[in-house]
């Protein structure tokens, strides 16, 4: 299922990238086409009218008109460079080329429009320091190169007009950034919804496997172990065959546990996560004590001698027993006796509670799950009310899968 999760995320990401790139390519293509058209119109206006505003030789007029109109071609690629070329050429033209007597503007109107457009693009695309430099420099250029030669009435007019252009560009910039952030958030939400759908499906499959496959496989193990005691005149060969069936079924259960670990994990392989052992059981007692449970425990024997299979079953049974005790009898004291000898014996008993306990069965988990774990490890588990009004869980686990259990206990577990 992990590869399906990764595959679905990759497909969603690729579709989003293709849509985004298609939109960007289409938008850029149209914008560039309009920009070229505007530049050609500016040039077509600047060249024929240049002799009306400035005293320029005929041979130089195409180049001066180009400096006035063509920097706008950089409005998308590099607006800062385009503005620098337009402003620099405007300063050069205002200082080196004289105006016609009836012209008060230092540069052509087309040149001023190009400067306005590039300043707007700088406000949308460039950093704040560059925006500030462009605004101040453009204000000085247009405010100090009038025919009067000083700031005069243009001292505040041009800065205010250019400031309005800059503010409008910053507003557009903020709107564009907000829109991009909204699109990114929607894409992330779409990926998250797909991931949650996969995790929910994985959890459903894990529940089905746990409630169906593991349950029936546990019955196969129990039947194989109890068959020599329930069937008369079982030959040694048949007994060995039953033991082989039980061992094979237990191996299948172990593989099912690994599959359940993959299905219930969130992208992390289960083999990369250490499985709990018998030596980790005392940590459960200490954690319950820190959580406020009135718990007392005794441990006889060495937990290090418990093999991994029985240790994992012991840990999960203890964990579920303490959870049930704290959930169904939150005010009761809990006593735990753990003994490691020829068998691993666990007794978890809680006293009576003042409140009415809820039903302990939950359709495949709880006690049924603990019994399945005990049977899969070759042991048995009983659970029920205690004479003092409390509840007791009693588990017996062999130290090896070939350990022979008491026939009476195995018959009770089968029933």
Automatic annotation (TrEMBL):
Keywords: ATP-binding, Coiled coil, Kinase, Membrane, Nucleotide-binding, Phosphoprotein, Transferase, Transmembrane, Transmembrane helix, Two-component regulatory system. The keyword Transmembrane helix applies. GO terms for molecular function: kinase activity. The chain crosses the membrane at residues 29-50, 56-74, 81-99, 105-123, 130-149, 155-176. CDD domains: HATPase_UhpB-NarQ-NarX-like. Residues 201-266 form the Signal transduction histidine kinase subgroup 3 dimerisation and phosphoacceptor domain. The keyword Transmembrane helix applies. Residues 177-204 form a coiled coil. It holds the Pfam family HisKA_3. Its EC number is 2.7.13.3. It is an enzyme of class 2 (transferase). It catalyses: ATP + protein L-histidine = ADP + protein N-phospho-L-histidine. This is histidine kinase.
